[in-house]
Amino acid sequence: MDALPTTTVDADTLRSFIAEIFVAAGCDAEEAGRIGHHLVSANLAGHDSHGVIRVPRYVRWLADGKVRAGQTPTVVTESATHAVVDGNLGFGQTIGPLAVDMGIAKAQAAGLAVVALRNSGHIGRVGDWAERAAAAGLVSIHFVNVGMGELVAPFGGVDRRFGTNPFCIGVPQPGAPPLLLDFATSMVAEGKVLVASNGGKPIPHDALIGPDGALSSDPRTLYGPIENTSVRDPGNGEGALRAFGDHKGSGIAFMCEILAGCLAGSPTAGPNPGAKRGGIVNGMLSIYLDPQHFGAAGFAETARGFAEYIKASRPASPGGEVLVPGDAESRTRTARLRDGVPLQVETWAAIQATGAKLGLSPPG
Ligand code: NAD
């Protein structure tokens, strides 16, 4: 598949157009602004898979009742150090910050807290939530499941059994972006197959597996025929994404399901009756730690020193460089804030078409 040309849109223009789309689709201005902010934030971090490419799907899900505007989380149970909250299928961009803020407040008071979030609409790039905790001075650890989003084959199997179940750890760095590990437990996030199917960066040759066990990088393995379609539907394909790291990545995906699905009380993968409802329901089990309660004087500086030691490793190839988690995102953010956000032309056309259906003209 040949790479399609890209176009560049500046972040502010993109944010306001996405916000206009969601106001036209039925959200209030604040929620629409949050959706625009967080989707563009994913593009700025370099994770186009979780950025504005999601707009057509979100609008369709809103119209179909698979995600709901104007929700707030309901507290199911809580103590000084934990809470279980139900996102009521609200937009993850609204539910996410409220759930995270609850964890931040409890951890700042008690030293640590666990918040189990169930039934949230798509929470997007999980790194946004770890960055929010880091901005408040907290370490955070997030296990996420994608209930009803079975796309990933377990190690040794070919059938879809897991969601792309992301895992994330954020560590604050005063005056600098946090150390931030944030990845899907599939070899690539589904959105990266989506980006590839629109002519964007190709995925690795072995990222997908067909029903016969053959490894593939062809997005059709996941989506079925894609010619002359603008909305990709994994329901039309027969293959699966593969978990990263063989049995180890597959094992983390499994535990994300156990913690964010079974323990948090969010829908899990499995032959449950709701499995075919469509949309994405995220569960997220988050642990918040306040370093100030741990007696590790100079924690942030020690962590920074360690990161610098890692980066000082001799590169494996000439001209290479060793990075630590979070470097790639902060560099891309700096560049894209300066130069604009590159979008595949097909992605930008699909967003504009979604706006046009809602009576909006594209940004001038
Ligand atoms: P990825 O494979 O690009 O990995 C990103 C991680 O690797 C980051 O922590 C980054 O700093 C680090 N990294 C990148 N290059 C590095 C290098 N050279 N050296 C050291 N570290 C490096 O990420 P992904 O798996 O494609 O995930 C993309 C996004 O998708 C994430 O933000 C994730 O939260 C999100 N996601 C969300 C859902 C959901 O349901 N909400 C599901 C899956 C994924």
Give an overview in words.
It is a single chain. The protein has 364 residues and is an alpha+beta fold. It has two domains: 6-64 and 327-357, Hypothetical Oxidoreductase Yiak, Chain: A, domain 1 (Orthogonal Bundle), CATH 1.10.1530.10; 74-151 and 162-186 and 264-325, Ribosomal Protein S8, Chain: A, domain 1 (2-Layer Sandwich), CATH 3.30.1370.60. Helix content is 38%, strand content 19%. The chain has eleven helices and 13 strands. The chain has helices spanning 11-25, 29-44, 55-63, 92-110, 127-135, 190-197, 220-223, 246-263, 299-311, 327-339, 345-357, and strands at residues 6-9, 74-78, 82-86, 112-120, 139-147, 152-153, 167-173, 176-183, 208-209, 215-216, 240-242, 281-289, 341-344. The strands form three sheets. A seven-stranded mixed beta sheet has the order 2-3-4-12-5-7-8, with helices on both faces. The protein has a four-stranded mixed beta sheet with strand order 6-11-9-10, with no helix packed on it. α1 (11-25) runs antiparallel to α2 (29-44) and α1 (11-25) runs parallel beside α3. It is globular. Nicotinamide-adenine-dinucleotide binds at residues 47, 49-50, 122-127, 144, 146, 164, 166, 168, 180-184, 188-189, 192, 280, 282, 323, 325-326, 328-329. Nicotinamide-adenine-dinucleotide (NAD) binds at residues 47, 49-50, 122-127, 144, 146, 164, 166, 168, 180-184, 188-189, 192, 280, 282, 323, 325-326, 328-329.
Quick synopsis:
This protein is of the alpha+beta class and 364 residues long.
Which helices and strands appear, and what pairs or packs with what?
Blueprint: E1 6-9, H1 11-25, H2 29-44, H3 55-63, E2 74-78, E3 82-86, H4 92-110, E4 112-120, H5 127-135, E5 139-147, E6 152-153, E7 167-173, E8 176-183, H6 190-197, E9 208-209, E10 215-216, H7 220-223, E11 240-242, H8 246-263, E12 281-289, H9 299-311, H10 327-339, E13 341-344, H11 345-357
Parallel strand pairs: 3-4, 6-11
Antiparallel strand pairs: 1-13, 2-3, 4-12, 5-7, 5-12, 7-8, 9-10, 9-11
